[in-house]
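Long-time lurker. I teach an intro course on protein structure, and each term I like to show students one example going from raw sequence to a predicted 3D structure in token notation. This year I'd like something fresh instead of my usual example. Would anyone be willing to generate the tokens for the chain below so I can use it in lecture? Attribution to the forum is fine with me.
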Amino acid sequence: MPYRAWFQCINPECGAVYPLDAIVYRCRECGSLLEVRHDIERLARRSAQAWMKLFEERYKSTQWPYGSGVWGKKEWVLPQIDNENVVSLYEGGTNLFWAERLGKLIGLEDLWIKLCGNTHSGSFKDLGMTVLVSQVKQMIRDGAPIQAVACASTGDTSAALAVYCAAAGIQSIVLLPKGKISTAQLIQPIANDALALSLDTDFDGCMRVVQEITRDETIYLANSMNSLRVEGQKTVGIEIVQQFDWEAPDVIIIPGGNLGNVSALGKGLLMMRDLGLIGKLPRIVVAQAERANPLYRAYLRNFESFEPVRAEKTLASAIQIGNPVSVEKAIRILRQFRGVVEQASEEELADAAALGDKTGMFNCPHTGVALAVLIKLLRAGKIDKSERVVVISTAHGLKFIEMKVRYHNGELDFPCRHANRPVELPPRADAVKEALREALRRRERLQA
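-- Reply from a regular --
Happy to contribute to a lecture. Here you go:
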């Protein structure tokens, strides 16, 4: 009997089931979100050791499509897809960076950064988009009326959708909030032949419009409320454990915006536990920008209620979301993972990103949010200095150079503690040597 998966309503009182080739994003019975369910009993017929051996053999191999960090776990992700319909750009397999110097600076002995931005379109969104676009390609082959795939985006989702649709030969449509994404993020879907629509609203407004237009079954929805995305993104947690020789870390910190990544992370780890690959679950920490913090506010109320907010402008533009569609799934995961939610101010996230850069990284502002939250939780004693901590870096810093330029030029609304401006000098060797001596003196003062 082959492995199989299906959509199922997350409402335990409903539990309606739909095939993965159905054009459905919410339960038709009760309106709740859906999730992809797998035949765990069938998967469990292979031992944990056998799964680990199989995944190791495939990891970064040249055997199509299993060298991908996502498709190397195909049976756990989208088992019914034909390999000929897989649209893969060798996503995943990103490095786990040992942040030894940064760890020492902030007082943490075992700090790692999962560099999810070191992938084709420069963000973790590739992990989910390869799954969704592959399923769409197979549905079109089987006669589905889909003519285009659409998303609302603060930048990274649009880039991932556009590049995977370009690779598949499918039209993409991206709805972007006017003036609220970086130039690098805007040019990606334009370059990859998307229909790029700049709407005079925020992300939540774009999300309302994309949900309306995708009621038409010829336009397929690619936002994370489509749980096919979650299936690819859940492999980041599996891959972290694999990179630690099949041991789970103590804490994983992840930036939270629309919150699909939070539920995806937990889903992959729960699957590993249920199939015997790990014996413990890490704590999950969600890091939010103070100016877009609806989950943090709900956490302070012990998740007894959730109220959307109007997200204010933040340097962490990709998580400038006040009404996340995956909040119900995220809260459910946090309750199972002894979850913590913390926020970071604009000054905290910018300084944390810059401090990480000084030790060899090149952080996006969203990674800065996660690093700032890590520092706050360490100082508060909520993370122990001996714990193994992984911070998930969601995108490449090159997508956000405008923010970095403004930081190092001192052009933000607060003091930039780690600003490093170019020094203008006459073309003389003695001037260069004096500048070096001053830089070394400054370094000694900071280290004292």
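Some talking points for your students: The radius of gyration is 22 Å. Residues 429-447 form the longest helix (19 residues).
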